[in-house]
Design goal:
The protein is an alpha+beta fold. The protein contains 9 helices and 9 strands. Strands 1, 2, 3, 4, 5, 6, 7, 8 and 9 form a 9-stranded antiparallel beta sheet that branches.
């Protein structure tokens, strides 16, 4: 399973760079996806955000070095902390005691490195179809986002709230597929934007933007339920249950959220996942 091997290569890279800067773009490249996708998928697969996993691993190694006699400042600098205060805060968040206690035999926590493997589940059906689609244009609102997933997770919901009063402006522009209000992230080396838009060939109104999504094969999944929880649960199941046994790998096009209804108890939605045969 090539994509699983690629993900574990990304984890090898991560482990090798715990003492320095970790490049999300390189993690994505090794895993065969964007930095944004890597961070989001990592959180689904590992059950913890990438930033938190990195902090736990660094503090695990730091604790071992302190116990072996290393000085606090030297260890702090090695793992990217400019001051003992910042290092002390991070260390206590993981271990519950300050670094000085590690040198005195305090009980500490260890977080071993992870490797991905899959135990496939099939307890619930998943409704999907494979759709071949040429490049298509979307028009709508956008906001810049960070390559750091924790920051983008805060920015995107805020953007939906801000855009809510203007969603009606998108409906007259809608004249293509997927049909619905689309959420898509253009995270790449060239630009990092999150779009709330519609598939459209119409002229771009003032205050809106256009973006062409590349041709791809899409695994299209349908779901319903209260948002955003039901959408997030479907995305998690796609990554952890469908993809490993599907014969497909994640392609480099963006995945797309398609909202068919206004948010409610039984909102209908789709997830368009770009896939390719290895």
């Amino acid at each position: 399973m090539d994509w699983l091997n690629n993900w574990n290569k990304a984890l090898d890279y991560l482990e090798e760079h715990l003492e320095g800067e970790t490049d999300p773009g390189e993690l994505g490249r090794l895993a065969g996806c964007s930095a944004y996708h890597f961070q989001r998928m990592f959180s689904y697969l590992a059950g913890v955000p990438l930033s938190e996993y990195i902090r736990r691993r660094r503090m695990t190694l730091a604790a071992a070095e302190l116990q072996s006699g290393e000085k606090v400042l030297a260890v702090a600098l090695r793992y990217g902390y400019d001051s003992p205060t910042a290092f002390n805060r991070a260390f206590q968040a993981v271990h519950g005691v300050p670094p000085s206690q590690a040198k005195r035999g305090a009980k500490l926590k260890a977080y071993p490195r992870i490797r991905f493997k899959f135990i496939l589940k099939g307890t619930e059906e998943m409704e999907y179809q494979i759709v071949q689609k040429e490049a298509f244009r979307i028009v709508g609102f956008r906001t810049p986002i960070s390559t750091d997933l924790d920051e983008s997770f805060q920015a995107v919901p805020k953007f939906w709230v801000e855009t809510g009063p203007h969603l009606a402006e998108l409906f007259p522009l809608m004249n293509g597929e997927p049909v619905g209000i689309l959420g898509a992230c253009s995270n790449s080396k060239e630009e990092n934007y999150y779009y709330i838009a519609v598939a459209s060939s119409a002229p771009v109104p003032e205050g809106m933007y256009e973006w062409t999504i590349p041709a791809a094969s899409w695994a299209v999944f349908s779901g319903n339920g209260p948002l955003p929880g039901a959408m997030q649960d479907l995305q998690r199941r796609i990554i952890t249950e469908y993809l490993p046994d599907s014969g497909y790998e994640l392609d480099k096009a963006p995945d797309i959220e398609v909202y068919l209804d206004q948010p409610g108890e039984e909102s209908r939605f789709q997830v368009w996942l770009p896939v390719t045969k290895p």
